[in-house]
Amino acid sequence: MTSSDAPIDPIDPSSAPESTHAGNDRPLRIVIGCDTFAPDINGAARFAERLAAGLVQRGHDVHVVAPNQKYRRAEPRTEVIEGEPMTLHRLPSVRWAPHDWLRFVWPWRSKHYARKVIDRVKPDVVHIQSHIVIGRGLSRIAHERGIPVVATNHVMAENILDHTALPEFINRRVIDFAWGDAERTLKLTRAVTTPTRRAADFLEKTIDISGVIPISCGIDRTQYTPVIAPREKNRIIFVGRLTAEKQIEVILQAMTKLDPALEATFDIVGGGDQRKNLERLAVELGLAGRVTFHGRTTDEELRALLSRASLFVIASIAELQSIATMEAMASALPIVAADAVALPHLVHDGENGYLFEPGNAEELAARLTDVLTAEPAEYERMQQASLDGVAVHDINRTLDTFEALYRDEPLPE
């Protein structure tokens, strides 16, 4: 992600892109509200970046509202995200002390900033990526102005609880309040979406809302290099934030239970507040020579690591979809995943990999062994099943569906 140094010129509401189509096919002016966005690295941020870039490619005028990296407001400026120029409205934010990168806008300022952005941009539609702070303010002001709002939920309670650093009884009250406020926010929208059917069911059971639409986050499969063939070395890989809900310690424990003859290694890609603890645990478990912490990598480095890996493993208990798992599937990797929340939506046990009981290191080790000792034909069958399974998550399907929601048109099949 790169950005220009100069603010953009003031926005003229009459300067929306000229349509080259008739009727409802005209380009739209879209505001996307995000509580996390580039340079943050996480699933919600990556989805918002790809959504925004895809909409720009289709000719829409995209404005992203996101936290600034400092407590000061930046003038709207053009930034290049996923190779596409778009307008960023960066709002003053502060870092959440218990977390290594999380920043947030003061909640009592969210509607003030929302008024300024919406009055300046005059969007056709607002698409919020969470109901927490920025999305909360935008949805309320857009509703007041009669502007349709679409909401996508990427939030799991476990993710919130992990970062509060508050006593459990206070956490519970915070969560109850947060979901109550989420319900009030989401009821202001034209449509509510989540990445999977399981995630939609979770949201409908958690708050009084119905009709949640599952829309995959989507990926561009052409960006990955699948190599369908057995591997010479047994390389296990995980990609994602190193946080408590990812349960990476369970994977490390499972590594100690593998047959030493397999000579399996473990690549961990990503940063997070648990990295030092996990590095220490790897040493304590005698895995220091077999585990590599790569930290945050470039997209090119990530794709290379995926292409050479033998399998992808994820032990998380709080995934509403998992873009990282889809990227591994697009790289033709068998997947071993926790049987939790939305992961079974991507991993079909015995087809493109295996599921295991969350937190069960013994079972995880057994499922890893199943993949690493599979006959070549069986291994390649699982690889092909991953490629076939990720085809329905093509980013163009995702963009088609959101465009239909923005225009209030029937959804594509």
UniProtKB/TrEMBL annotation:
Keyword Glycosyltransferase assigned to the entry: answer is yes
Identify the residues that the record assigns to the Glycosyltransferase subfamily 4-like N-terminal domain, covering every copy: 41-221
**Keywords per UniProt:** Glycosyltransferase, Transferase
- What protein does this entry describe? D-inositol 3-phosphate glycosyltransferase
Lineage at the top is: Bacteria, Bacillati, Actinomycetota, Actinomycetes, Micrococcales
**Protein species of origin:** Microbacterium murale
Q: Name one Pfam family in it.
A: Glycos_transf_1
InterPro entries, from UniProt? Glyco_trans_1 (IPR001296), Glyco_trans_4-like_N (IPR028098), Glycosyltransferase_grp1 (IPR050194)
Keyword Transferase in record: yes
Glycosyl transferase family domain: which residues?
Answer: 230-385
- Coiled coil, from the record: none
- Give the span(s) annotated as Disordered: 1-25
